[in-house]
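CHAIN AND CONFORMATION:
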Amino acid sequence: MSRFPSIPAALSRRRLLQLTSAAAAAGAGLPAFSALKERPGTTRILKVGVTTGPHEQTFEVAKRVAERDYGLKIQIVPFTDYSRPNAALDAGDLDANSFQHRPFLAAQVRSRGYKIVGFGRTWIGPIAIYSRKYKAFKNLPEGASIAIPNDPSNESRVLLLLQKAGVIKLKSGVDPIAGINATPRDIMENPRKFRFVEIEAAQLPRTLDDTDASAVNADYANKAGLNPARDGILVEDKEGPYACLIAVREQDKDQPWVGQLVKAYQTDEVRDFIVKTFAGGVLPAF
């Protein structure tokens, strides 16, 4: 005979239902393996560095897709400038970053020796020249001051834009992918005698009150309330090598989670978000 009192059957069934409901609630929102497109490439938390603005906003959507469809766990780490995300990635403080185009990455690898590689196009943000003093680029006077980014790849990018517009001529051989970048010293012809002021990219929107015009990258333009399609007086087209990438350390390039992260980003869900949110300020590149 048992030394323990019997438990009424109805009470046992009720308790079992309570425990089952509690377990289901605890697991709510966590995708079961059977619901995933692929098993997670890693179970640890992936730290992904982004610059604030469109990169951060868009990666929030990609994070949601990656967690829902691939079971990845992601922590987004925001940065306010271009100088730190690659250093943090190379040092192992990040697992990936999403903020830079290929010429910028190539320049950083060459100059700083980073062991970083790029995967998967994300979006392209047309760089543009803005002015608070002149409504059209043709109205800039002789000797106008133009602020441009001081990092090698984006400085060259603006000068190539100006050359394509026919207002300057650069020496031959400029190749942003190979890292043969242009600086103001490489201008062979400048008939309108424009004066170029080299400024850190993040500070360029603040120069608009002090210059005749300023070239601003798309993410910093967005944060300043500028849209190249609406406000630019000279705008880069979407062709060219300046689509942004997801970057990882060389040692991680074959990890399954890398491909899953790229797949999560390159979805219709992310594409639709970019198109609807930025109204031409940035464009999907996949």
Remarks:
- The mean pLDDT is 89.
- Residues 9-26 form the longest helix (18 residues).
- DSSP finds nine helices and 14 strands in the chain.
- The radius of gyration is 25 Å.
